[in-house]
Amino acid sequence: MDAQAMHIANGIVNGPVSAIFVVFAVAVLAVCVRRARADLDDRLAPMAGLVSAFIFAVQMLNFQVLPGVSGHLLGGTLAVILVGPWVGALCVSTVLIVQCLLFADGGLTAIGLNITNMALLGTAAGYLLVAGLLRVLPKNPGGLGVTAFAASVVSVVVASQGFVLEYALGGTTDLSLPWISGTMAGVHVLIGIGEGLIAATTVATVARVRPDLVYALRKFRKPVVLEEVAA
Amino acid sequence: MGAGHTHALYLDRGGRVHRLAPEVKIVAVLLFTIVVVVTPPAEFPAFAGYLVLLAGVAAVARVPALWLLKRATIELPFVLLAVALPVFGHGERIDWLGLSLSVEGLHGAWNILAKGTLGVLASLLLAATTTMRDLILGLDRLRVPAVFTQIATFMLRYIDVLADDARRMRIARLSRGYDPRFLWQVKAFAVGVGSLFLRSYERGERVYLAMVSRGYTGRLPHAESRKPATREWALAATLPLISLGIAVLA
């Protein structure tokens, strides 16, 4: 269900609902742009570009899960851990806009829906989980890997349920909602596991070699330095 | 990376559509797609009209029909879903070739198929006639926040960095006697994905610092150099205007 589920095409959800979600996406992205300006320094700017390129590449991996039903990786959690929630949401949105304009993937009028699901819902869910889990788990490559895996699974499923909500509000065809919801959730748990493994290995390697590049570890860094000074 | 910074879908023809300012083309395609999506699905002649209109644009832009059709297969995954609709849909059913199909599902499938195909064709025409750099410049002139265009610029540039580094790592593995078969390739890739990311980052960081030291401030140069003439806006406006005309008449 790749094109329909994650990349919604033109004409699947009706005009008014699409328009509402465009307004919603623009409003939230405006907040992200304002918050991202403070984050985007010399280290984060190339990282944001690379994370986007990486997400772009992994979104091309389509998993054939059931006959006629496939899905792809989203990469929102990876973005959250490496560049933070604000820049992360912008990274995924940029990927979606470029895919739509340059590669004709996902409908132009469905862009609000796609951004809401993948860039906003998925990233927000991933961020909340990452922030929560990192409070209890060890702040080392292993703990970060586990966090990345768990947050990926949840964020992908949440993003897929965003589509169900939009379809319930303005679907142009009549399919039973519980069926869609169930299929989407089932397929995306599997996708989430695949995504979680990729995100976990990537994040763990980066944390091991260049921990200074991991945004999620930033706020835990200062106390460590202070302790060393005190000792 | 040195070769022109184009993308896979760009078709280098010196046509009139190629020379239009990018922001003009983006707006035209956006408006056209909106007209297509709000057209009621039962207006069959309107959709035929849109298709003829796009064929006209393709002819003016000198984009071959076969080239377009081949790239339009990108929508195949969701066409598969459209095929499923008549079979699983609800409501009144008709028999066709021994299959029991839902009428509502058939309408839904047509709706998705027609609007999706027209949208994909319009986007493909935009991509075929506009370079990556021009698209980003166009978005920049349409007042898209600089954060976006900055991320997009780096993203498109780093895709090549990633692909090249992945290729180098594969060659390095092969030249050390690694002879992967089928699925075992995946294992090596999965183990190496983290280091691929890091290698690409460090390469990209050097590129970025080189750009900064040459005066890069977050925007591509010459963003304000050429304002599109009214004539260009008028020319590009024919696409959404004619489609609007078709929608009203049909």
UniProtKB/TrEMBL annotation, chain A:
* Keyword line: Cell membrane, Membrane, Transmembrane, Transmembrane helix, Transport
- Major subcellular location class: membrane
A GO biological-process term = transition metal ion transport
Gene Ontology cellular-component terms listed = plasma membrane
What is the membrane topology listed in the Swiss-Prot or TrEMBL record?
Multi-pass membrane protein
Q: Where are the bilayer-spanning segments?
A: 12-32, 44-63, 119-137, 144-165, 185-209
Q: Does the keyword section mention Ribosomal protein? A: no
An example Pfam family from this entry, by short name, is: CbiM
Q: Where in the cell is it found?
A: Cell membrane
Which protein, by its recorded name, is this?
Answer: Cobalamin biosynthesis protein CbiM
Name the species this protein comes from: Actinoplanes siamensis
Automatic annotation (TrEMBL), chain B:
Q: Which UniProt keywords apply?
A: Cell membrane, Membrane, Transmembrane, Transmembrane helix
Its GO biological process annotations read: cobalt ion transport
Specify the protein's topology with respect to the membrane: Multi-pass membrane protein
Give any Gene Ontology cellular component.
ATP-binding cassette (ABC) transporter complex
Q: Where in the cell is it found?
A: Cell membrane
The lineage's top-level taxon is Bacteria
- Which InterPro entries does the record associate with it? ABC/ECF_trnsptr_transmembrane, ECF_CbiQ, ECF_transporter_component
Chief location: membrane
Per UniProt, what is one Pfam family of this protein?
CbiQ
> Which residue spans adopt a coiled-coil conformation according to this UniProt entry?
none
Name the residues that span the membrane: 20-38, 44-65, 72-89, 109-130
Record-given protein name: Cobalt ECF transporter T component CbiQ
